[in-house]
Specification:
2 domains; 7-stranded mixed sheet; 26% strand; 503 residues; binds fe (ii) ion; alpha+beta; Immunoglobulin-like; 18% helix
Length: 503
């Protein structure tokens, strides 16, 4: 059943070449070179003064993402002044050199090339590096003019069908900058992660009313207003991406990123909220998201962008990443999917796209409430059940860690266990744990809910051919820097045996 990802209909396309209009404003010499191919000026050579900066242009760090078995996306954004509109960059394309090496000292370069940071993309760079070896770690960096970026570390996926002894993912979501420090990322960066799964709320679009608890942080007035325009969303990403712990986690391993609601607006439902103002806001939010994420997804076209996609890690695991906001209409319409009928059909038709032991399903918000029936969820769980496939469902949104048996027909406690659902807590949103005891007791009164935890943190999951081992990693607080972390709970799922155990 395995198939080459190049045949997957996911609209993967990285557009990083200057538009025709962009070429015309390049200097003549550069335009003549660039228009006939990717070759551009010699490495490190400033172009008509470009490439020389008033301050460090790689202030937002580097990132990588959406690895395949021969490829990974490399990302950076030139921003010598990240907290002003335009990031202190000239309104011109700027050539950027990139390198991938076997070693951190870059003595063995395996791939390198030139691309352009374009003003229409806020001088972000997405490089689709091809021809890499499967199941390998690499180092990468960028150079612009005389400036070198920090070094990032990334990896490719194992070859399709290959046996894989173990693969470790982190699950994270919901990082409200003004709520606290991203300390969880500092630990995650050192936690042996092969792939980070960010399930949305990478930014919060609402007004920034205070900088406490981030004492000493400077937030210009234009970044404080609720995001509406693309420039406002861009500035919000800039503010978040100045965080050193977030940068460290991006530089340490590749990420696969999807969205929840706050990348646009609170609780938006794309299939319903279709007024012109909301569509313009969605287009702005999606554009800035794409510019700032190390994603293989094609850029949005106006307010539309397909981000649901799938990939496989050898014969170990298939990952299906969903979009739970863009196509949503009524939450409990029996005829219209919460995912949109097209995405739901894509999911169900592709359950066995790859012949793997594990099937992980990642989304921003869970398909239905913890204790309520959902027609969409019922159909999807039934489809897995009919195929004798037990999914592991990863979701964000709730700002609580909730680990549950996924029952075929919630809330009937006697219905069969289809799989396991891990709802991850937040990186910072809602602030310091442990959360309300009454809320926790409320979750735990449902017999299918096995664990509830109101601390901030992330979930680290080691996937092996025989079992899946997850550890909830909690940070003690987020309103002060340097919080300690601890393993709050471990979970185990045996391959082929639905149901989660606390161990
Ligand atoms: Fe959130």
């Amino acid at each position: 059943m395995s198939k080459d990802p190049s045949t997957d209909p996911t609209p993967y396309a990285v557009t990083n070449e200057p538009s025709r209009r962009s070429f015309l404003i390049l200097s003549g010499a550069v335009a003549a070179t660039a228009a006939v191919g990717p070759a551009t000026p010699a490495v490190g050579a400033p172009v008509g003064g470009l490439g020389q900066f008033s301050s460090y242009p790689f202030s937002l760090g580097v990132a990588s993402g959406d690895p395949l078995n021969d490829s990974v996306i490399l990302w950076t954004r030139l921003a010598p002044q990240p907290l002003v509109i335009g990031s202190g960059m000239p309104n011109q394309p700027v050539p950027v050199h990139w390198q991938v090496a076997d070693d951190e000292a870059f003595t063995t370069i395996v791939r390198e090339g030139e691309t352009f940071a374009l003003p229409e993309n806020n001088h972000s760079v997405h490089v689709d590096v091809r021809g890499l070896q499967p199941d390998r770690w690499y180092f990468y960096r960028f150079r612009c003019g005389s400036e070198l970026s920090p070094v990032g570390r990334t990896r490719t996926l194992p070859a399709l069908g290959a046996s894989v002894a173990s693969f470790t993912v982190s699950q994270m979501s919901c990082q409200n900058w003004q709520t606290g420090y991203f300390t969880a990322y500092r630990y995650m960066a050192q936690d042996g992660i092969d792939l980070g799964l960010h399930l949305g709320d990478y930014i919060y679009e609402g007004s920034i009313t205070a900088v406490a608890p981030r004492d000493g942080a400077t937030v210009p007035d234009e970044i404080r207003d609720p995001c509406q325009s693309v420039d406002q969303y861009r500035l919000r990403y800039s503010l978040y991406k100045t965080d050193p712990d977030l940068q460290a986690a991006h530089a340490a391993f590749p990420w696969a990123v999807i969205r929840d609601d706050h990348e646009v607006s609170n609780d938006y439902r794309g299939g319903v909220d279709q007024g012109p103002q909301q569509l313009a806001r969605r287009a702005a939010g999606y554009k800035a998201w794409w510019e700032n994420m190390p994603t293989r997804c094609a850029p949005p076209v106006g307010p539309d962008q397909r981000i649901y996609r799938r990939f496989a890690v050898g014969s170990l695991a298939q990952f299906d990443l969903l979009d739970s906001r863009q196509y949503r209409t009524a939450d409990n319409d029996p005829l219209v999917s919460k995912l949109g009928n097209e995405q739901e059909a894509w999911l169900i038709d592709g359950i066995n796209s790859y012949d793997t032991t594990w099937h992980l399903l990642a989304m921003g918000q869970q398909l239905g409430g913890v204790a309520t029936s959902s027609p969409t969820r019922n159909r999807i769980y039934q489809a897995y059940y009919d195929r004798n496939v037990s999914p592991v469902i990863l979701a964000g949104d709730l700002h609580w860690t909730l680990v549950s048996d996924a029952l075929l027909a919630l809330p009937d406690p006697t219905s069969p266990i289809v799989g396991t659902q891990f709802i991850g807590t937040s990186i910072t949103s809602t602030g310091d744990g442990p959360g309300s005891q009454a809320t926790k007791d409320g979750w735990l009164k449902y017999p299918w809910v096995k664990y509830a935890d109101g601390y901030r943190g992330y979930l680290r999951t080691v996937i092996t051919p025989t079992g899946l081992y997850s550890t909830q990693r909690d940070v003690q607080f987020v309103t002060q820097p340097n919080a300690p972390v601890w393993d709050a709970q471990r979970f185990y799922i045996a391959a082929g045996k639905p149901g989660v155990q606390l161990v």
